[in-house]
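hey so i finally got around to running the thing on that chain from the lab meeting. sorry it took forever, my laptop kept dying and i had to restart like 3 times. anyway pasting the input first so we r on the same page abt which one it is
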Amino acid sequence: MHDFQLGTRIADAVAAAGDESFFPDLKDSGEWSADMVIIDLDDDALASLDLIRQIKSESERTSLVGTARRVSKQLRDGAVGAGCSWVFTKSSLPKNLSSVLDNID
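ok and heres what got predicted. didnt touch it at all, straight out
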């Protein structure tokens, strides 16, 4: 997550729900596991839809959440088709995280 302010709001929302968060460097090949992964759909360097497919193929139980500044029907359909369970705008994601976390616990 390149947006420090959004990352902080996400970490605060996750902590308020009683869970832990971390922000791995996807360039590192180290293994990690998570119950939920948030993918920045605006980050062209990530090839986000490919990353979503990769994570989903490696762990069916991991819930994937896509986020973008603006969410069009095409973007939402692409992200859901790739494996995202939820897609939110960046402004609404922190407000909705507790609901998402309730659905994956």
